[in-house]
Amino acid sequence: MSEFRAMDSVSKPIVPVVKLVLPKLDAAEVAEAKVVAIAQAQPELVKTSRLQKIEMFLQAKSFAENTCCAYRRQLTAFIDWVGKDWERVELADLTRYQQELEGRSLKKTSKAAALIAIKSLYSWLKKSGQLAVNPSDGITIPVIEVGESKHLEPDEVARLFAALDGRKTERRDRAILLLWFNAGLRAEEVTKLNVGDYNNVEVTVREAKHGSSGVVPTDDETHAAIVTYLVQRTNENGGMLSEDDPLFVSCSHRSFGKRLSYEGVYKILKKIAAAAGLENVHPHRGRHTFSSSLLENGVDAYLAMPLMRQRSLKAFNTYNNKVRQKAAREAFWQAKGVIPRNPSSVQQMVKAWTQGEAPGRKEAIALEVDLEAVVEEPSNWLQVKPVAIPLNAVYGIRVYQLKIKLLGVRPQVWRRIQVPETATLTQLHSVVQVVMGWEGYHLHEFSLSEDETITLAKLLGNELFTFTYLYDFGDMWQHEITVEKRLASEPGKDYPVCLAGKRACPPEDCGGDWGYAHLLKVLKNRRHPEYRERKEWVGKRFDPEAFDLEEVNQALRELRSHS
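The chain above was modelled as a monomer; its predicted structure follows.
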């Protein structure tokens, strides 16, 4: 028995005890590990949470329906791509996404819109206290050039109207097309019109994009189309229509008699365009066509803008660029006193020239002879040796003192700054954004020039005058910039610099001067039903009376270091 015990004890191997030493994780690493674990275990729950954040943002901002749809689409695309919670996204992620967008075959406006949506959401997250640092501050939205007009040519418009013949909804569709092409209404504005919005002379647009409501006169053709359609509607209704009834209704089986939807008018135009053999036709091209027709028929741009209900010259220029180019070409030919040539191919040009049929050929030959005589330089011409003289050493760099006032806001918000004369309008835009406290999420324009590469020295010279700077074509923040002085720069002093100022600028996306006035009214009354919601939206740190000169100049120093 003892032998068996001995053998048993010998046969059992000795198992060594291994002690594992795991690295200690700090609190942040533990939290991140938990987030990753939850994301792996419950991916749908995490995705829902991220999407809910988008809905909270859209609800807080109270955007228009179309803007909400666009922001929702852009933000969902980003959060699906990055695969992180909003709070865990870093600047490096946003930079990679911007590079990803650049690599896609998207329009510049689409790329910019995606970045604007992201920056707007992160601004809200920070202001509402959900983030300490805004990672999107390091993202710059590229400047979008003014686009070309997208109007239809007269023969294309004629084909569209010809395609209406024989349609069951011909009267309704004709009235809709004429409101686009002869009155310049937007698609959504047409769908929201009521019967009472037409008074036999003009259409009253009550609900419009960016608050561009107003009245639009109608010509005889549009008037006849609307009245003919209303007569048909009255007969079908068996009695007079109410002023609150929708002007345009659906004729489909599913929604017969109901107000035409935004999608409905698009489908109508697509069918008409297909019948006319036209591609890439959408309602907004009718608005472009209306604008172009006004300008081509001699209506001054100053008067055309109210008819289009456009408050921004930069936005209006998207409608009239081609017209201006055409007028500029005609002015050129008139100034030169020659008959405009017709476009032709290289082969046609060479053939016409060699056969002596091209206009101006004889004059060109005579000019060549004269040029040969001119280029023979006389021996007694004065020879001048160029001498390099540093411009700054002779004249010195000068600076402009500017006062910036935000219009439409009371009490007044203003800044006084000094900027070097070598600064361009693009650089001045960055300075205005910093000193006023804007966040650069929206488009802008100067009244001085559309070319923002020009320096202040060339634009301002020695004149003392006032110009304007518009920021955000939605809220329409208009700034008045007064050139107060032009003086010599001080040795050792850095520019640009802020000298003085009063009060904080309004929060981004608060609804313009009217919206800001309402916001201030709410914040002054703790019993106001909107107080809690609006206070949470602007954040605890917002103080309309605050202005920190040192903080502003520190931001300007950082701007200089990054330029």
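The two ends are 92 Å apart (CA to CA).
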